Amino acid sequence: MPFSSGRPLAVEVCRPGEATVRLPLPAGGAVAVGGVELRVAVADQRVGWSVANPGPAPVSLDAVRLVVDLGTTTGPVRFLQHGHQSWSPCGVGVLGVDRDPSTTPGSIDLVRGIYHADPAVAGPGELRSELVTVLRVGDGHPLVVGFEGAAGHDGTFRLRPAGPAGTPELAAEAFLGGAVVGAGERRDLHGVEWEEGASAPALLDTWAARFGEAGRARVAAPYLVGWCSWYHYFTGITEAAFRDNLSRAVEWPFDVFQLDDGYQPAVGDWLRTNDDFPSDLDAIASAVAAAGRTPGIWLAPFVATLDAAPVLADPAHLARDARHDGPNLAMVNPAWGGSVYGLDTTRPETLAHLEHVARTLADAGFGYLKLDFLYAPTLPGRYADPSRTPAQRLRLGLEAIRRGAGDDTFLLGCGCPLGPAVGPVDGMRIGPDVAPSWLPAADQFIPPGYDAVVPSTRNAWRSALVRSFQHRRLWVNDPDCLMLRTTDTALTRDEARAWALAVGMSGGMALVSDDLALLGADAEALLEEVVELGRTVDDAARLGPAPRCDDVLEHAWPRRLSAAGLTLDADPDHPERLRLGRS
Ligand code: 9PG
Question: How far apart are CA 306 and CA 309, in angstroms?
Fold first, then answer.
């Protein structure tokens, strides 16, 4: 295996608007390239590196890379494509067969920016994985390659069909997103480590355990059962419906009772309610607390509409678009009536605002904050402090929220770039949205190339299996809500049950998201089964191995999840054939 020799072959430097510069890496490990200086130190199973600007003027850097030649390969090169943020696609790809979604004709700039660290289109035939990957050549042993941190910058692996030598190569990229490195400044980059072994999921578990420890991951939250208003009510939630469910919740084993999107007068205006909520947020939190549950609330702290109160009060909260100096577009969402824009998390006043929002919600009694659309400050744009990388912009925002929310509030990341969030968050959505249908709804808009990200329970299934190794290593996994109802849904009972058991076998959070008035004894029994399974797997993950997706490198749509001496076997094309048994 090329990595056993441990020598990167070349380095590459990408600067905005310029062609990538590539040079061989000299034996001493220091090289002046593209106006910067790279130092590379190869040790046993890891590379440490740093980048410096030796010149008299600041330089803007998009990315620096270490490139390894894989040599002549026999048999297919299989590569885990681990997605950038909660909703990004995840699954094995085969070099020369599969394609990066960004290369699909008509792929949209904003969509690429939302789902990848680097919004640019991937190279021809190139496959990408963010943060970590597993590679297997032919029937050789799997090799995990992963970054050691992500707070300072994102890390992307690029597997290319043929480098200058005509053989495949793997690049490890520190993505700096145009950050300005000052004259004379040196920045340490996150190291890259690798390990070969017999089992891909075991290698991923070991990598995640090390990454989580180094990044002080918050992994101690209790097993969590809850209710969330989104997947039945969507933005149509009203206070009456919320309270009706709360009154029915007496019968249910919920720790958390969470209000989702739809209570706010405008996206960005998180401390007030709209006309469908006659009470204020203090009263809502008090009602939930009086029912003996932890009050939870959703917010998308880093986005806002132009008419949101905090933006009207201080328009400089919004990052600017570098091309036309308007506000920086972060999402076009019909449910919100259109466009929302990203906040500038490099600006002290904006961080103070975020801290204030989190503190106010925590003081109102919300012990659980679902923080959504967190990718926004990682989008390209003009920010007050141009020295920050996209990962640092996200991190600054998350840390402000943690300061405001305090140590005891459970923070759930969603739509969140994964690496930089290790440390500030307690829980993480690790897949795309479920839906009351197994496949995407027929009228669903699918951005060209990105069918794997749109709401569908089958899409959520894939990421729940592929990312199962992150549970209790990087955070507590949130595979997304159960879909228990059998009316008002396009899911068959088999599909709902297959998804429910996958959630249980993941050991992750078990959230119900139905109108409780629609649920009967069957649904209660299924939840009970999920929770019992979930607690068993979660306990096992705390003490021993994380849940394992045994066929993570075999199938684009994995079928097997093993944990705590149990195995769930289900072909996502035939959820009715599901089997759960002792492994
Ligand atoms: C609330 C929802 C729920 C859900 C989240 C997130 O691309 N989009 O327009 C888009 C809309 C909604 C969405 C993801 C993407 O879902 O995952 O649980 O909280 O927001 O709006």
Answer: 9
Tokens of residue 156, six digits: 């992307």
Q: How far is the CA of 113 from the centre of ligand 1 (A)?
A: 16
- Whether 258 and 229 have beta carbons less than 8 Å apart is answered as yes
Ligand 1 pocket test: which of 231, 270, 332, 414 has the largest number of ligand atoms within 8 Å of its C-beta?
A: 414
Average pLDDT over residues 486-506: 96
For the whole prediction, is pTM greater than 0.70? yes
Q: Which residues contact 187 (CB under 8 A, 6 or more apart)?
A: 50, 51, 52, 152, 181
Strand partners, 169: 69, 160
Residue type, 555: H
Looking at the chain, the whole-number percentage of residues with pLDDT higher than 70 is: 99
Name residue 181's amino acid: V
The 3-state DSSP class for residue 270 equals coil
Find residue 476's DSSP bridge partners. 427
Q: Distance from the CA of 433 to the center of ligand 1, in angstroms?
A: 7
**Cα 136 to Cα 320: distance, rounded to the nearest angstrom:** 43
CA 401 to chain centre: 18
| Rg, C-alpha atoms of the chain | 23
Name the pLDDT band for 7 (thresholds 50, 70, 90).
low
d(CA 169, CA 154): 20
Question: pLDDT by residue (tens digit) across 315-370?
Answer: 999 999 999 989 999 999 999 989 999 999 999 999 999 999 999 999 999 999 99
Query: E strands along 138-224, which residues?
Result: 143-147, 154-160, 169-181, 186-196
Using CA atoms, how far apart are residues 507 and 469, in angstroms rounded to an integer?
10
Q: For residue 146, what are the β-bridge partners?
A: 132, 193
CA terminus-to-terminus distance, the chain:
31
**Would you say how long the chain is, in residues?**
583
Distance (angstroms) between ligand 1 centre and the Cα of 320 equals 23
